[in-house]
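Q: What does the predicted 3D structure of histidine kinase look like?
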Amino acid sequence: MADAVPILIGYVDADRRYRFVNRAYETWFGVRREEIEGRSLLEVMGADAYERVRDHVDGALEGHSLTFEGEVPYQAAGLRHVEAKYVPDVAPDGAVLGYYVLVTDISARKRAEAELARLLVRERRRALMLDLGRQLREESEVSAIADKACAVLAAQLGAQRAGYAEVDLAGVSTQIIGEWGGQGVQPLVGPLFVLDDFGPAMSDDLRAGVQVVIDDVREDVRTRHSLEAYVALDIRAFVAVPLVKAGRLVSYLFVCQECARTWGVDEVAFVGDVAELIWAASGRARADAALRQAEETERLLIREVDHRAKNVLAVVQSLVQLTPFVDKRQYVTALSGRIGSLARSHSLLSTTRWTGAVLRALLEQELEAYSVEHESRVVLDGPPVLIRAEAAQSLGLVVHELATNASKYGALSAPGGVLEVRWTWEAGRLIVDWRESGGPPTAAPVRRGFGSTLIQNAGKQLGAQVAHDWRAEGLHCRIELSRGALPHASCGERSTATTSAPPDGGLQDQRVLVVEDEALVAMELARVLALAGAQVVGPAGDVEEALELIESSLIDRAVLDVNLGGRMVTPVAKALAERAIPFVYLTGYQEPGLDDGPVLHKPAAPEALVSALAGRRVERV
């Protein structure tokens, strides 16, 4: 019967020698039973295995029935997980003659139990990850996300500390933004740490995306030369899982223990899963924050655009009502010029997102109509100055009125006239000197016109003092700004700029194609060109119509809007260039990014448009 069962059945006497063993011993130890019976436990089992069960043997020989379960390293049978039952053989007089032993190999069962336990832990952690993901979705701050995830991670692994750190672009410094620590653990959130201080080899592994598993910092070659850093934080063992995105170490998640510890494969994998969950939740939180910020910015921008648009419309309405009417031509010219000044100032401000306008650029735009020839007629000189947004349009109107008066009655009304505009700082004030010379003799006006009134009122809005000195050789106007201007760093400004007046040449008998999708603007362009002697072709409101006119009509030159109902005018410009037909762009874009033709900005003065087109005049064949 003993030989028929697969378990070990034996009898050991009081001298700890086998007296009987069944056939299963032969299978385990690979020898015949005769070679086992009569030998001692130490000889058969080996020293390590004997020491493992020695206490139970002693207890059995003292008369106790015992059960042992555990791994035993048999010298011939290898490491086996066994369950051994010890039953003492007691004589009638109470003497213990030996003991019976039944040994069952439960290694397979234990492996199955361990695998089942591992699967259960994995399922529990999977359920935990789902629940943690739900919790993290409720958090809007990255630090709160990291804190909550680290608390769950430390509790699951029984760790002393867990933390989530982000790494700078250079991969040198790291900052812990969320953590969990047990009682008495020193907080690490906030200050910057140098990654290499914890071991260059360890930090190199992290940068390479390699998980760092350290069972004992004193024994591992990657950390034992940097023990001071770990001792200061009471860290003896740790796992660090890096997150490498786009080839760069961006963050890592770590768990620490104050004593040496062997980390399981599943534990390390769990740390990695939590790290990815934190990264995903953090990205979502940052994206949500950016979206909220963008929505708030958009809301503020819409309010600001609405406010500024209403202000501009109110100013335009005032100009319409206040501009004196002598005759239609005078009224349209004066009003168009003032509205154009507002538009030019607005365009300058839009390029700087309404932080201000560079004074030189503002002056150059207002005096652009006098820049076609005689480069010495207008001289601009002064240091870089930024005019604040709230003052730019008012100053632009002042300069426009001065330039208009100069072109009618002052230096710019005569061929030899010169205008000098110089500015400097005096005791914190911006001083702008407007000096005219070489024109007809000037004298103070008998009565104040609307232009003078506009200059004075705009000056008050600027917080500026505007003084006119009507000298015989020309007007000297001094503008003092106590606010609304500040020094401006600029590397691209010239120390001297010159502009001049347009030539007298018109567009007589020139066939000019007008490409413009705004009907009123197209009508105005056609009117201006007709007054200049041109024959208007079109206007064309879209790309296809413009291309058809180019194919079917004789055209000498063209004026093109850049954006036609959301479509760029590029095909039209290309067709004109292929036929060597000169053209001019007319656009509302401040920086249209075009280099294949002259660019004028809406609303352009009629003289500027005619001059730009006539400047490239060719004889029709």
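A (community wiki): The structure tokens above were generated from the sequence. The radius of gyration is 46 Å. Residues 491-505, 616-621 have pLDDT under 50 and may be disordered.
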